[in-house]
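Lab notes, practical 5.
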Amino acid sequence: MFTSILYAVIVLCVIGILAASILYFVAQKFKVIEDPLIDEIAELLPGANCGGCGYAGCRGLAEAITKAGNMDGLRCPAGGDSTTSKIAALLGVDSVASAKQIAIVRCAGSPNNSSTKVRYEGYADCRLAHDSFAGEGGCPFGCLGLGNCVKVCSFDAIQINPETNLPVVNEGKCTSCGACVKTCPRNIIEIRDAGVKNRKVFVSCVNKEKGAEAKKNCNVACIACLKCQKICPFEAITIENNLAYIDFKKCKLCRKCVTECPTHAIIETNFPLKKSVESLSEES
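Output from the prediction step:
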């Protein structure tokens, strides 16, 4: 009896030793030696894991930078130029500053501009609502106002305005990570250059319906009348699929299109207020 138990214990010990030896040699054979530079770069990144760089988290970007050995085409939107400079210094390469970018909301379909036709009482999720109906104002392209963009923003840079029921971007907090862009089922949020003194001119509409139909659902919808395109001296405006678009790379912020637009679909932001004729006469 005792001998049988002893043999069993010995056999188990031998099997354990063999298994451990096999596992050890397999681990040594297939082990991956990770470059310590990855950890150093990851430490410099903000740790937001927002995905704005195109990789699944900050460590993914750190691995890509380490593999490339430079910053070409690799950038952390959340960290900005300061983070880029630190990583470039660590790599011993030159750092190239990029234009600051922010998210803009290309929809002005507030209840004042797009009167409520139906009430949505389902689950507060933009994607679900998008699959369910056109929208409370009837525009199948407009903002649904249920806040998916707010939920995914890691920087508290976007909120829903309770009066307009539209997202508002805090330009001071926005890192242009693009999370809000990816989550919006109606593609009303766009990443653009912040512009000189944060001044921007853009078409605040993404409705691709024909003019009369778009105007029926929203007073400030783009009707593709071509007036903005004709008056633009820089060829920055194109009309496609019944919708005007302003190329921010070409736009010189002259604002001629803003006053020309008959539906006020073109928005100007962060410009000084224009003085009225009355105030100018008073000053003179």
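Observations recorded by the TA: The chain has a mean pLDDT of 88. The CA atoms of residues 43 and 131 lie 41 Å apart.
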